[in-house]
From TrEMBL:
Organism: Bifidobacterium oedipodis
One GO molecular-function entry: serine-type D-Ala-D-Ala carboxypeptidase activity
Family recorded in the similarity comment: In the C-terminal section; belongs to the transpeptidase family. In the N-terminal section; belongs to the glycosyltransferase 51 family.
InterPro entries membership: Beta-lactam/transpept-like (IPR012338), Glyco_trans_51 (IPR001264), Glycosyltr_51/Transpeptidase (IPR050396), Lysozyme-like_dom_sf (IPR023346), PBP_transglycosylase (IPR036950)
Top-level lineage group: Bacteria
Comp. bias (Polar residues): 724-741
Transmembrane segments: none
This protein's GO CC annotations: outer membrane-bounded periplasmic space
Biological process annotations from GO: cell wall organization; peptidoglycan biosynthetic process; proteolysis; regulation of cell shape
Region (Disordered): 722-778
Cross-referenced SUPFAM superfamilies: beta-lactamase/transpeptidase-like, Lysozyme-like
Domain Glycosyl transferase family, residue spans: 77-265
Name this protein carries in UniProt: Transglycosylase
Length: 778
């Protein structure tokens, strides 16, 4: 049964009802009804009002939306902050005593004695508002806290009706706040309510909580606020847009309001006369130390592309919530501390390399997109894009800006991917060795293959054939070993390898080392895109995926999924689960060492396709270039157990109509560009700077790449499709010289057009079956 109302409770209810009636009628004469109630009313209210309650209302004064902060891998360099409400929640013990007193003096001087409703303040407000027509607030600090919480909940729930009722200028709203305030004071202590208010109140334009305000306006923590600073902050809540002191035009009004707060503090005995005089005579502008707080990836500078990738990782990962909206809310309001894998120095060097190679405003209009990964960990170290990050609509009219990171998959904020040409070929060599073959076996090669030669349980081929050649229609070398085929980057040998071990074996190896389609995220098996041309790179992939694949070559066969987040903690300091790299031994180390030996030989032999991969100090280099027709030019390289990097140049937005041929890039004209003439030199320049900056020992490279004897045996001849052949004659060999696929020019990038035309171009591959394919030693 409901409790019987006591006379005291009835009296309070009558007073509240009388207030409503008076507010509605606005009659001046009825104010006399309140005269008897003024005397001792706070004492009566404190005794009686706590029995009042509002059903189904519960406020947690310690749980508020807070900004999240994203850091580089050092845990201190701030990449970006995220918030719907820019707030840092702190306990009351971390807010200076003078700041607490300033707010109480300004907002509710009887805060420590009333029971949630300052009845004297309410009556005073009534007299001022309805009798003297002089607008004045009568809300207690507790009521203001309630109002802020109700508004915040309405915003969080996207409930415009709740937001309206939280702020409507009606007596009904005031009565509701009073009742809830009484309930609040039954459940929480005064200190908890003051803590809640100081953390939820607005202290400027999208600036919430006293800690954020202290950092913003004065560059100090709330626990270190002095008298002048505390009074300045305390005055803002009355009109955050008008009294925000970071706006120069607001400073005269803000100083005036600050001095009002100081006067109130003096009246309450919180400061003495001398402190008051010193404070009011201090110019406000001399006290400010404005600190800008960057919000989101838009303000992250050259960290922005990496920042955007991390945001997509959070939105795509179930570790952070069941739905995308839950994950986004956690990022914007959860007060997370996010330590990422970004290496500041690596990212800086890679961004500089991208813009030095293809300037943002270059007449070619080409994109440069690169990614770097830490081998054996999956950690993404940074990106290199020759654009400036801008996710606003303004970027659409500025070719130097982009909000899209073409180095990553579509799901992670990137494009639909690129074909990569001969940079794919190391996968073929791994598949060849995994099938039990030596890389020194002699293969019969041809410029035409029946598609049925590549058939397997998931690919049947057809009645057609596939025409394939090396650079500039130079035919083939017959026979040739898989070792020489990779060193020289010959397409015809890759095709022969595929005809022997079949496409399913190559697809399985690709999945093994981490390949997936940039647009769909699926493996070759799941996309079903089997084609003989995939042996020379007619796949769809992002630079980050390729950097991760080259990291397998750099880590003795350990494959890891790319990760961008090392650690996430919530406001309680608890660590949240983050996506795993799932590192595992994917490829036998003997195979990887043999591959690394081959890739190194490509950088040292006179007919090697990787001649552009060089270190200034002479340490061993490893790399593979690629050219996909005249759509894109690529390169991948690594330092064992240290870093893997893959880069690509092309037009990511319109490759069909904007080819990388017969154009000038960064002031150098070529009729034909390839991976060896621009991408590989750029990545080599980057690695040389990286080695110098990080002081990487040469032994990391020089002790890597010892081939396994079982994969180096010679003498066996293998025919097309696995059919045997023996005693190859001179007539069986193509008349093309052994280095027909090599860019032997090694000329400066300022070569004349005639020199460019005489140079064998590199790693060209078209992506359709039935067309002539070309590739040479870049």
């Amino acid at each position: 049964m409901p409790k019987k109302k006591t006379p005291a409770v009835k009296r309070v209810l009558v007073l509240l009802l009388a207030y409503v009636m008076l507010a509605a009628s606005g009659g001046a004469v009825t104010s006399v009804l309140f005269a008897p109630a003024v005397f001792g009313v706070n004492k009566i209210a404190k005794t009686v009002i706590p029995t009042l309650s509002v059903e189904d209302v519960d406020f947690d004064v310690t749980s508020l939306p807070q900004k999240s902060t994203m850091y580089a891998n050092d845990g201190t360099t701030v990449i970006a902050t995220f918030y719907n409400q820019n707030r840092i929640v702190v306990p009351l013990k971390d807010i200076s005593d003078i700041m607490q007193k300033a707010v109480v003096a300004r907002e509710d001087r009887r805060f420590w004695t009333h029971a949630g409703v300052d009845v004297q303040g309410v009556l005073r407000a009534f007299i001022q508002n309805y009798l003297l027509d002089n607008h004045q607030g009568g809300s207690s600090l507790t009521q203001q806290y309630v109002k802020n919480v109700l508004l915040m909940k309405g915003i969080e729930d996207d409930d415009p009706i709740a937001q309206y009722h939280a702020t409507e200028d009606t007596v009904a709203r005031k009565i509701r706040e009073m009742l809830i305030s009484v309930q609040m004071e039954k459940k929480y202590s005064k200190a908890e309510i003051l803590q809640g208010y100081l953390n939820i109140a607005q202290f400027g334009n999208n600036l919430y909580g006293v800690e954020t305000a202290a950092q913003k306006y004065f560059g100090v923590s709330a626990k270190d606020l002095n008298i002048v600073q505390a009074a300045t902050i305390a005055c803002i809540t009355k009109n955050p847009s008008l009294y925000d002191p970071s706006v120069e035009a607001n400073q005269p009004a803000a100083e005036e309001q600050r001095n009002i707060v100081l006067k109130l503090m003096l009246q309450e005995g919180y400061i003495n006369e001398q402190e008051y005089e010193d404070a009011v005579n201090t110019p406000l502008k001399d006290t400010l130390n404005i600190t800008e707080v960057n919000r989101g990836c838009q303000d992250a500078g050259d960290y922005a592309f990496f920042c955007d990738y991390v945001v997509h990782q959070i939105q795509n990962s179930k570790e952070f919530g069941e739905t995308v909206s839950e994950r986004s809310k956690l990022l914007q309001e959860g007060g997370l501390e996010i330590v990422t894998t970004l290496d500041v120095q690596t990212n800086q060097l890679l961004m500089e390399t991208a813009r030095e190679t293809v300037p943002p405003d270059d007449s070619s209009g080409m994109e440069f997109a690169a990614a770097a990964v830490k081998p054996g960990t999956g950690e993404v170290l940074g990106f290199g894009l020759n654009r400036y990050y801008d996710a606003t609509p303004a970027a659409a009219d500025d070719p130097t800006k982009s909000g899209q990171n073409y180095a990553v998959d579509y799901a992670d904020g990137g494009g639909t991917g690129f074909t990569i040409g001969s940079s794919w070929k190391p996968i073929n060599l791994i598949a060849w060795m995994e099938a039990g073959h030596s890389i020194m076996e002699n293969l019969q090669t041809s410029t035409r293959y029946a598609t049925t030669d590549f058939s397997c349980d998931r690919y049947s081929g057809g009645a057609d054939s596939w025409d394939v050649q090396n650079a500039l229609g130079s035919g083939t070398v017959n026979p040739e070993t898989p070792f020489d085929g990779l060193v020289r980057s010959h397409n015809t040998t890759q095709a022969s390898m595929g005809s022997v071990i079949k496409l399913c074996a190559i697809a399985d190896t690709a999945t093994e080392v981490g390949y997936h389609d940039a647009y769909s995220g699926e493996t070759i098996d799941k996309t079903g895109v089997f084609t003989p041309a995939m042996t020379i790179g007619s796949v769809n992939v992002s630079p980050l995926t390729m950097a991760s694949i080259f990291a397998v070559y750099a880590s003795n066969g350990v494959q890891c999924d790319a990760i961008a987040i090392k650690k996430v903690t919530n406001t309680d300091g608890e660590s949240l689960k983050v996506p795993s790299a799932n590192c595992h031994q994917a490829v036998d180390s003997d195979i990887i060492q043999t591959l690394a030996y081959t890739l190194n030989q490509g950088t040292t032999r006179s007919d090697g396709a990787g001649f552009a991969f060089k270190f200034d100090d002479g340490r061993k280099a490893f790399g593979k270039t690629g050219t996909s027709g005249d759509y894109s030019v690529t390169a991948g390289t690594f330092i064992p157990d240290e870093i893997s990097v893959f880069g690509l140049i092309g037009d990511a937005q319109d490759p069909e109509h904007h080819r990388i041929s017969n154009i000038s890039i960064n002031g150098v004209y070529r009729s034909y560009w390839d991976g060896g003439t621009i991408t590989a030199p750029a990545l080599s320049s980057f690695l040389n700077k990286y080695v110098a900056a990080k002081n990487v020992p040469a032994e990391k490279s020089n002790n890597y790449g010892t081939p396994a004897a079982k994969y180096m045996t010679t003498g066996k001849y293998v025919g097309i499709g696995g059919r045997t052949f023996s005693n190859p004659t001179t007539q069986q060999r193509n008349s093309t010289s052994e280095n027909s696929g090599t860019d032997t020019s090694q000329q400066s990038e300022n070569s004349t057009n005639q020199q460019d035309a005489n140079t064998n171009q590199s790693d060209t591959s078209n992506s359709q079956d039935g067309q002539t394919q070309q590739s040479t030693g870049q």
